[in-house]
Amino acid sequence: MSGNRTFTMIKPVAVKNGHIGHILNKITDAGFRIVAMKMTKLCVTRAKAFYGVHNDKPFFEDLVKFMTSGPIVAAILEKENAVEDYRKLIGATNPEKAEEGTIRKEFAISMQENAVHGSDSDENAEMESNFFFSFDERYNQDGFEELG
Ligand code: IDP
Ligand code: MG
């Protein structure tokens, strides 16, 4: 059975260009609930760790440079079938291939500066959520902290 949470980041250029509000609107309009959220900045060490799976790719160094170039917004999102539905909502990695109405179609500038991150599996959603948030930074439906 698939899980009901995923993890997202609004990437530096989308933050810089003033798209935080528009992107969050699309997320909540699509039925996702925000469980945790913060604006923060990745340092090089943490960006390399977060994208560790890509460390042998030709775009890795540039990606790390980009992801540390300014603040990001990190969030945990909740909805039935969250990982798959959120990947649909954000669209393809390459914005030229992203479907109409998707976040990347609307807000991405390039393959690298593609506006948002979305977890690709339940396992990664959990790892990535833990990378940014402690349990007492997460809130359930009633607004109570999740202590662990
Ligand atoms: P995803 O974000 O759609 O899951 P991944 O393949 O996991 O895509 O790549 C992680 C991130 O690395 C992408 O979101 C994008 O910012 C960047 N990226 C991926 N492929 C390329 C590329 O070919 N050129 C430049 N940047 C890339
Ligand atoms: Mg990915």
In terms of DSSP E residues, the strand content is 15-25%
Range of helix content: 25-40%
Q: In terms of structural class, how would the helical and strand content be classed?
A: alpha+beta
Globally, the shape reads: globular
Number of E-state strands: 4
H-E order? EHHEHHEHHEH
Rg, nearest Å: 15 Å
3D structure, described in words:
By secondary structure, this protein is of the alpha+beta class. The chain has one domain: 2-Layer Sandwich (Alpha-Beta Plaits), CATH 3.30.70. The chain has a four-stranded antiparallel β-sheet with strand order 2-3-1-4. The radius of gyration is 15 Å and the shape is globular. The mean pLDDT is 97. The structure holds inosine-5'-diphosphate and magnesium ion. Inosine-5'-diphosphate (IDP) binds next to loops.
Quick summary:
By secondary structure, the protein is an alpha+beta fold. The chain is 37% helix and 16% strand. It contains seven helices and four strands; from the N terminus they run βααβααβααβα.
Would you spell out the secondary-structure blueprint of this structure?
Layout: E1 5-10, H1 12-16, H2 20-29, E2 33-40, H3 44-50, H4 60-67, E3 72-78, H5 82-90, H6 103-107, E4 116-118, H7 122-132
Antiparallel strand pairs: 1-3, 1-4, 2-3
Which descriptors would you attach to this protein?
148 residues; binds inosine-5'-diphosphate; four-stranded antiparallel beta sheet; alpha+beta; globular; binds magnesium ion
